[in-house]
Amino acid sequence: MIGTEGSAGGDGRVAHDVDLWHHGDREVGDGLVDLAVNVRVPQPPEWLLAELRDSLSAVAAYPDVAGAVEAIAARHGRSREDVLPTAGGAEAFTLLARAWPGCRPVVVHPQFTEPEAALLAAGHDVTRVELTESGGFALDADLVPADADLVFVGNPTNPTSVLHPAASIRALARPGRLVVVDEAFLDAVPGEPESLAPERIPGVAVVRSLTKTWGIAGLRAGYVLAEPVVVERLRGLQPPWSVSTPAAVAMTACSRPGAVAEAEALAREAEADRDRLVSRLRNLGVEVAGTPRAPFVLVRVPGGEKIRLALREAGYAVRRADTFPGLGPDWLRIAVRSDMDDFLDALAVLL
Ligand SMILES: Cc1ncc(COP(=O)(O)O)c(C=O)c1O
């Protein structure tokens, strides 16, 4: 059983109601245009591919992440002791879920479902806090139960695309509680506003991912930034050599100032692409949730499930959003791409 608090009301208990293990990659293939997966580029840039190819000549040796730790620490202005490279953000959630058996975890929904899935797999009872559409899916710290000692929140949040103020997340921190901020998409927001990555804040852990911006989802590259005591605890649970040599090379390469500047330029392009998409969707009468800040948008369309299936017939895969707690079958998530005219024309016919 999973507890529910906040907008869900009732007696606060609901059955295990949605497929938390459903991800956008299950919706693509068959020649469909992929608007379901949030990996931004179809393949890594040539300079990164070249470094990855070179790294293969060193795979006889066991991996060493020291260079990656150094590079990530420098990129964020943190100490090396604050950094734990992981096999994608997903591994970080598993480590965090296993690190405090018997704690009282809370997941702020709608959000990426892997934190809750990892908590359930680690044997926790999970309490859900559901943010509301009427509130623009904005973070309301008052909804988080006072005795929650492990709190997961996304910023910007997948799938709502809402960017919470850093101050609202800081306000969740208190002695005896670890707040985990999933910043997997923050490198896709120009200037990385509202990030808590650059600062060691007691009781706050930041999860980052490199897989979306750089097109390396198959490589598995992410990291945690937290107080050394938290990093040590997670490292103690991490399987040996979890981060491969190519993944460590990617972490070093993507943390260099030139790469960070390139990510910033991609983020600016994505922002312009997203604003165009949002205005065209709104012109079609489609309801777009909140104020989108990430390179994807959440929309509500009456008969959304039928529209999603019809879009597949027309050659487009968009992500169903009914598997995110707090949403339902009318909700769909659309990844931002550079040219979406044909998709929008196809959608217009179906509305
Ligand atoms: C919000 C969010 N956080 C984290 C992740 C995990 O990313 P990865 O494990 O590829 O680094 C994803 C993947 O879809 C995501 O959407």
Description:
There is one protein chain. The protein is an alpha/beta fold. It folds into two domains: 24-42 and 267-350, Aspartate Aminotransferase, domain 1 (Alpha-Beta Complex); 46-259, Aspartate Aminotransferase, domain 2 (3-Layer(aba) Sandwich). The chain has eleven helices and 14 strands. Strands 2-1-6-5-7-8-9-10-4 form a nine-stranded mixed β-sheet, with helices on both faces. Helix 1 (46-55) packs antiparallel against helix 8 (245-255), helix 2 runs parallel beside helix 8 and helix 3 packs across helix 4 (114-121). The radius of gyration is 20 Å and the shape is globular. Pyridoxal-5'-phosphate (PLP) is lined by residues 38, 88-90, 112, 154, 158, 182, 184, 209, 211, 217, 222. Residues 34-341 form the Aminotransferase class I/classII large domain. Its cofactor is pyridoxal 5'-phosphate.
Number of strands: 14
Rg on CA atoms, Å: 20 Å
Question: Helices and strands: which structural class?
Answer: alpha/beta
**What is the overall pLDDT average?**
93
In quaternary terms, these chains amount to single chain
| Spans where pLDDT lies below 50 across 5 or more residues | 1-15
Order of helices and strands: EEEHHEHEHEEHEEHEHHHEEHEEH
CATH architecture of the largest domain: 3-Layer(aba) Sandwich
N-to-C terminal Cα separation, in Å?
Answer: 38 Å
Order of neighbouring strands in the sheet with most strands: 2-1-6-5-7-8-9-10-4
Estimate nothing, just give the exact number of structural domains: 2
Instruction: Provide the list of bound ligands, each named once.
Output: pyridoxal-5'-phosphate
CATH structural fold name of the largest domain: Aspartate Aminotransferase, domain 2
Q: Quick one: CATH class of the largest domain?
A: Alpha Beta
Query: How many alpha or pi helices?
Result: 11
> Helix content range of the residues, please?
25-40%
